[in-house]
């Protein structure tokens, strides 16, 4: 192909956060904004990327289809041999991870701002996943950022627009584009992980019902082929199942606030036995029973506790488990009882991936509705849904139709009776002024530095206070300043950190956890159980004084 060299200039602020680069769509649509970042990515990969094949796709949001054409020109310009693009530019994040691994690709680009709203006035984003399907490690994202600050030219191949609406091959000289079905490889992998026959038998029972809310995001493209066609769920089980460029005006974030339709349904008269939702790019999940919420920190623990029995992929046991630091210790309790290693990493899926590559961890999770396993190197919403359905199917396989089944709530209550319950909640304060948020964190740093074991915060006695820092046990890399935490002698914790996925302003996250092994408390509402310690957290941080906020935007 003919490659044209175009002059460009560095643009400020192209630093990736927790998961890729996210900005307002209009920013990305500005002159060379996207091209500069993608060129910097290819520059940082250098000769290594020449002659390789990569994947490309996204969550269906506004501007993705246009962005594909720019990225293809730059890929060809960088000497990439072939790009596999999802039809209609669709590819869920875990599906991209599966594609990279399954087809041994060099890497893949995912166009998504995940759970952030989409549209011309909302957010856009892009992330790069590397060879084993994992989100680019900081070594790569730092290098990309370095290049964005000194970029001077774009190398764009002169190729025509590729029709993304049809599956098929396109050759432009020595550069190839193949438009592929975004579901096929991923579904094939899920069929290796789960017992689809057991799932189908269970899902088609006349006394079982399920609803899945795709929130008009990418899993709309997956729920039909997987849940309906393969597993026999009725079409009506899939809600908001058509991916839309603006997610129907909604916030494609599967939590109790933004997935309000589903929540209403599950707390209403026609609730299904099982309810679930996924986010913009299909890596998050929310699991509900009838009027019952499984907090993600519990979800990963409950899946880990049941995986060996219910999921063929884990039939010879788990290699280990891992959670992000703010995620509750429910998983640690399972690990301890079952004799498994449990790792604690910073927030962000990339920190799990070395552990998985080194066969040290099979299942991992984050409190932020991310759950997954080492079949891919991303959190995986549909995997979590099928994991829960597998547990239900397994537990109900000998219960005749019409008799009382084991419910989501039963599984949770039994789990807590056995391992104790880690009450957990997260308060998000979105759209806070950056300066105010930073001052609050500075204040907390001081409080932390001045505290010592035995100090009293309210009724709680401090065991340690620190700023979380992580040394990767596999490659020794260090990530510091990953959240301020106050741990009390009874095991309760309060944690503060700032979000790294916003597109403007700051989001303060406050995480609260408290353990109870007294079964008589286990039915309590988390907000009630945590009321006292939440007050301590708000007092110690002086959050309302710094941010002017009396209430969080989102509580999960
Ligand atoms: C948030 C979550 C984190 C998650 C990340 C990406 O990051 O807290 O656990 O890995 O989003 O998820 P932050 O820095 O905003 O707290 V996704 O589904 O938005 O790619
Ligand atoms: Co996501």
Automatic annotation (TrEMBL):
Domain (Alpha-D-phosphohexomutase alpha/beta/alpha) ranges: 14-153, 185-288, 297-419
Places the protein is found: Mitochondrion; Plastid, Chloroplast
Top-level taxon: Eukaryota
EC number: 5.4.2.2
Catalysed reaction equations from the record: O-phospho-L-seryl-[protein] + alpha-D-glucose 1-phosphate = alpha-D-glucose 1,6-bisphosphate + L-seryl-[protein]; alpha-D-glucose 1-phosphate = alpha-D-glucose 6-phosphate; alpha-D-glucose 1,6-bisphosphate + L-seryl-[protein] = O-phospho-L-seryl-[protein] + alpha-D-glucose 6-phosphate
Cofactor(s) required for function per UniProt: Mg(2+)
Keyword annotations: Carbohydrate metabolism, Chaperone, Chloroplast, Glucose metabolism, Isomerase, Magnesium, Metal-binding, Mitochondrion, Phosphoprotein, Plastid, Transit peptide
Broad class of enzyme this protein falls into: isomerase
Primary location class: mitochondrion
Membrane-spanning parts: none
Keyword hit for Oxidoreductase: no
Protein family according to the UniProt entry: Belongs to the phosphohexose mutase family. Belongs to the ATP12 family.
Name the UniProt record assigns to this protein: phosphoglucomutase (alpha-D-glucose-1,6-bisphosphate-dependent)
Highest classification ranks of the organism: Eukaryota, Viridiplantae, Chlorophyta, core chlorophytes, Trebouxiophyceae
């Amino acid at each position: 192909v003919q490659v044209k060299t175009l002059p460009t200039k560095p643009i400020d602020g192209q630093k990736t956060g927790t998961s890729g680069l996210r900005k307002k769509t209009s920013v990305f649509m500005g002159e060379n904004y996207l091209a500069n970042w993608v060129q910097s990515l290819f520059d940082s990969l250098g000769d290594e990327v020449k002659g390789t094949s990569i994947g490309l796709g996204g969550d269906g949001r506004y501007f993705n289809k246009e962005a594909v054409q720019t990225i293809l020109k730059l890929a060809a310009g960088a000497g990439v041999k072939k790009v596999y693009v999802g039809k209609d530019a669709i590819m869920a994040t875990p599906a991209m991870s599966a594609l990279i691994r399954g087809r041994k690709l060099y890497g893949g680009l995912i166009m998504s701002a995940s759970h952030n709203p989409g549209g011309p006035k909302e957010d856009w984003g892009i992330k790069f996943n590397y060879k084993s399907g994992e989100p680019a490690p900081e070594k790569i994202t730092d290098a990309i950022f370095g290049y964005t600050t000194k970029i001077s030219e774009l190398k764009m191949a002169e190729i025509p627009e590729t029709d993304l609406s049809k599956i098929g091959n396109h050759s432009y000289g020595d550069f190839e584009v193949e438009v592929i079905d975004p579901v096929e490889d991923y579904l094939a992998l899920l069929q290796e992980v789960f017992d689809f026959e057991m799932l189908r038998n269970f899902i088609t029972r006349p006394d079982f019902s399920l609803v899945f809310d795709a929130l008009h995001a990418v899993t709309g493209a997956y729920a039909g082929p997987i849940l309906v066609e393969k597993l026999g769920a009725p079409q009506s089980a899939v809600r908001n199942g058509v991916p839309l460029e603006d997610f129907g005006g909604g916030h494609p974030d599967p939590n109790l606030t933004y997935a309000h339709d589903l929540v209403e349904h599950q707390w209403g008269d026609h609730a299904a036995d099982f309810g679930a939702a996924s986010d913009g790019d299909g890596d998050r999940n929310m699991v509900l029973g009838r009027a019952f919420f499984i907090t993600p920190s519990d979800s990963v623990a409950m899946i880990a506790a049941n995986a060996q029995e219910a999921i063929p992929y884990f039939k010879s046991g788990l290699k280990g488990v891992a959670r992000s630091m703010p995620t509750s210790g429910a998983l640690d309790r399972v690990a301890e009882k079952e004799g498994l290693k449990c790792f604690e990493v910073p927030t962000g899926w990339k920190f799990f991936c070395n552990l998985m590559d080194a066969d040290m961890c099979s299942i991992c999770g984050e409190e932020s509705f991310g759950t997954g396993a080492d079949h891919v190197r991303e959190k995986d919403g549909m995997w979590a849904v099928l994991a829960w359905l597998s547990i239900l199917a397994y537990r109900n396989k000998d219960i005749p139709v019409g008799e009382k089944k084991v419910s989501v709530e039963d599984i949770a209550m039994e789990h807590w009776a056995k391992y104790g319950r880690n009450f957990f909640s997260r308060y998000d304060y979105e759209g806070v002024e950056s300066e105010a948020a930073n001052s609050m964190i500075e204040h907390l740093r001081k409080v932390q530095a001045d505290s010592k074991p035995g100090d009293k915060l309210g009724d709680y006695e401090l065991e340690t206070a620190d700023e979380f820092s992580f040394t990767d046990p596999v490659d020794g890399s260090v990530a510091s300043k990953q959240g301020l935490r106050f741990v009390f002698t009874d095991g309760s914790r309060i944690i503060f950190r700032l979000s790294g996925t916003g597109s403007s302003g700051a989001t303060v996250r406050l995480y609260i956890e408290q353990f109870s092994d007294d079964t008589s408390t286990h039915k309590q509402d988390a907000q009630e159980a945590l009321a006292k310690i939440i007050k301590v957290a708000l007092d110690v941080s002086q959050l309302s004084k710094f941010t002017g906020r009396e209430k969080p935007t989102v509580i999960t």
